[in-house]
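lol forgot to send this yesterday, sorry. struct tokens for the thing we talked abt
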């Protein structure tokens, strides 16, 4: 109603525009309304990812389709790179097929000079190489331009060890961008940057931070997986156990959460945050037990 009265459809704050927020939260009906009222599907605000990348990070193919129908540029080069390269690196086969169908260009290099087909070739992901191959222009340094030839050659020709200082800078930059994105409430973007960190360094703090992002996005299973990865790396870190407890609580496994929070409290007995979480889950467990007993008494 406000939009029909001329309210600005693209006001932006630290978390981007309303379109950015709707895309990241899979609100396809809201995205449709905003686009119908003139929202810019290519708007980039500061370090906020473009709407199309926000929709991808939020796991919303429906929003991606709406954005592209409204003119979103599938080849937009943002600070995070192009969306096709990200989908390829994530192994998202169906998204890659979709992007190619709507005009994504597999010949755009990233900041390291690598084109999308090189990543699945290096990782042995033959299906993705076969999908990208027909639309990728031959690389002159690869005389055997075939699916098998690309896979055989990629490690030696294009993935020589990087200078340690370069890798460390990439990790530091990604950590900083992840922290900034989280502070702005851009949780899908923060997930993206912490994933970049983990691609180069299996860092316990990055797993803990990404787990927290998943918690804010209400993705309990993903939050739990990252918390458990964190715990494997640093089993004596209270935050790892705390993240596990929070994820289990979100998944309504209150007894499991009680167990995790109890371990966290052993490692950090002074933490009021852990004590509060433990108390809450114990109350939830007791409440469920009381409901169960009541049901048994009242058939």
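and heres what i got for the seq, position by position
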């Amino acid at each position: 109603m406000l939009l029909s009265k001329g309210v600005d459809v693209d006001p932006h704050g630290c978390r981007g525009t309303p379109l950015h927020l709707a895309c990241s939260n899979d609100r396809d009906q809201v995205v449709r309304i905003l686009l119908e009222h003139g929202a810019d599907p290519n708007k980039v605000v500061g370090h906020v990812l473009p709407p199309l990348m926000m929709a991808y990070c939020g796991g919303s193919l429906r929003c991606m389709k709406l954005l592209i129908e409204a003119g979103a540029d599938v080849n937009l080069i943002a600070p995070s790179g192009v969306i096709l390269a990200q989908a390829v690196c994530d192994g998202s086969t169906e998204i890659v097929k979709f992007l190619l169908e709507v005009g994504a260009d597999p010949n755009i290099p990233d900041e390291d000079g690598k084109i999308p087909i090189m990543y699945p070739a290096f990782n042995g992901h033959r299906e993705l190489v076969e999908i990208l191959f027909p639309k990728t222009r031959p690389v002159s340094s690869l005389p055997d331009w075939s699916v098998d030839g690309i896979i055989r050659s990629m490690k030696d020709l294009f993935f020589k060890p990087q200078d340690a200082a370069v890798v460390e800078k990439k990790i530091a930059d990604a950590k900083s961008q992840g922290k900034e994105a989280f502070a702005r409430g851009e949780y899908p973007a923060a997930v993206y940057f912490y994933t970049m960190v983990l691609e180069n360094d299996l860092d316990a703090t990055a797993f803990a931070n990404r787990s927290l992002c998943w918690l804010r996005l209400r993705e309990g299973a993903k939050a739990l997986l990252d918390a458990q990865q964190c715990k494997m790396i640093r089993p004596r870190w209270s935050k790892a156990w705390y993240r596990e407890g929070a994820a289990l609580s979100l998944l309504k496994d209150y007894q499991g959460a009680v167990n995790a929070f109890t371990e966290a409290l052993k490692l950090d007995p002074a933490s009021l945050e852990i004590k509060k979480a433990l108390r809450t889950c114990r109350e939830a467990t007791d409440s469920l037990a009381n409901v169960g007993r009541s049901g048994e008494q009242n058939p």
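Residues 13-158 form a domain with the Serine Threonine Protein Phosphatase 5, Tetratricopeptide repeat fold (CATH 1.25.40.20). anyway ping me if u want another try
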